[in-house]
Amino acid sequence: xxxxxxxxxxxxxxxxxxxxxxxxxxxxxxxxxxxxxxxxxxxxxxxxxxxxxxxxxxxxxxxxxxxxxxxxxxxxxxxxxxxxxxxx
Length: 88
Prior knowledge:
Shape: globular
Mean pLDDT: 94
Low-confidence stretches: none
Order of helices and strands: HEHEHEE
Number of strands: 4
Distance between the termini: 18 Å
Largest sheet: 4 strands, mixed
Strand order of the largest sheet: 1-2-4-3
């Protein structure tokens, strides 16, 4: 993804609210499934990750790896994730 595409996605994500929240239990298979469903439906989502900074980075990387999505932006506890839906 080039910088121009990332900039457009950041602008589109700005008014969005987090669709999925990751709490104490961390990244469970059920949460990953919910993220996949949200990515299929919306392509661009926000995920709120309630964890320490180092753990948040690990969780973000794992989400992107497991869902084959790209991290667009990460500010504090909120990560913006994008995956193109081939059906659209």
